[in-house]
Amino acid sequence: MTGQRSAVDRDRSPAADADPTPPPTAATAFLGGPDGNAAYADAIDRARDVLLESFATSAGPYAGTDHETLRERIADLQVVPDDGSSIEDTLETVADDVLADSVRVHDPGCVAHLHCPPTVPALAAELLLSGTNQSMDSFDQAPAASVLEERVVDACCDLFDYPTGADGVFTGGGTESNFLGLLLARDWYCERRFDRDVQTEGLGPEAASDLRLLCSDAAHFTAEQAAHHLGLGEDAVVSVPTDGDRRIDLEALDSTLERLDADGRHPFAIVATAGTTDFGSIDPLAALADRAADRDLWLHVDAAYGGACAISDRLRPKLEGINRADSIAVDFHKLFYQPISCGAFLLRDGDRYRHLERNAAYLNPERDDAAGVPNLVSKSTRTTRRFDALKPFVTFNALGRTGVADCVEYVCELADAVADEIRTEPALELCCDPELSAVVFRYRPDDGSGPGSSSTAAVDRVNRAIRDELLADGKAILARTEVDGTAALKLTLLNPRTTLSDLRGVLEAVVDRGEALETDREVIDSA
Q1: How would you class 258 by CB atoms within 10 Å of its CB: exposed for 0-12, middle for 13-18, buried for 19 or more?
Q2: What SS3 state is found at 248?
Q3: Model pTM?
Q4: pLDDT tens-digit series, residues 232-249
């Protein structure tokens, strides 16, 4: 049929006969070609210069700009202009309007949150994982990355003395890890107690109304959040009082479990905390493991903060019993000094992942499972994930276990030292002896009845004002919290470059500001 066109050809327009031409921006906007690779090198060099000049070498933890000013200024920025400008101009805008008003987590005066300064090796790894853009859901998207994540997870399981057969996955942090632990705990319990496959059948009426999980009243809010997301409701979380050391009270736990049994409820999990957000308190993990074993409950340990003790021979005893937990949440973007986000979920018995697994023909077909292909999507509540395991891998290899352990041990020692400073200052009150690297204290205004005497309302008003004014001045970023219903301040010490001299300066600023506020009697009298 020479000379005759097919029906498909006859339907094509003349323009369709031409090959599509790549857009002119493609040559320099992507890695892979000479022009794109050169453009990448120039952009990274410029970004590095901007980061150092507009962020890393700036003085103080924050410029003090308020949120209304920032909104007004950033409202004038174009987000999707019709025509692009040079990367140099764009990064200059970022430097002036974003980096200049960003919190400098590396500054010794930034002592508010569990928000660490990242190590330089981790920043180098961040560059590599962003540039390679591996997606951790299937092996054919991230071959070496998938195998390395498995290796890093194995090393983490070893760090917490988990047995052979343990498994895990990298997560976005403690919130995701805690949710994953309670998801598996719920489904595991329902299978054993009600012979019900929640993944396919959903929650039965008995499970939906009577399942309960227990944690201390100092546990992270993500226990309640997870209960909500799991369809149990926040009322399914039973809060147990803490003892004088801010740890879960074992006698109260025992009586609570007995009461739940008497009421016909079904406790399915105990959530222990290894490092509470405010005090760094660590629940008695071995005793909780005993209770979980006796009652056939799942023990999940939220070690997002305190899990870093496992890398230190000196601090490791604080986590005694954690190896008996059914699951562990650990954050690398806290005391392991990794850029956000970087967390892990560890599972003592990897076979229990069966409660989560599912297969998709286009992603992780069953024949891959049979062949042992590492499609990590089966272990996660997410599909697309970043290659975050590269960051701790590079950091651990660059600094060594002892190098990281030295940093963790130092900030814990620093917390003890600054607590001693607070004890000797009459205007300050230490709220609890530090367990890890968090120090909670408050300024005690004088209401005229003598040194350190003041009403609760006055304490609230002055301490909140101290925190707000120091932030506005850019002198220090302190955390605010409440202890026994009264406002308090908190130093969260994660930075190994912070010294006791730096913290003395912060405490002096707190006292000076408190005294200045007291001279304005309206602050006290209106409380």
Answers
A1: exposed
A2: strand
A3: 0.93
A4: 999 999 999 999 999 999
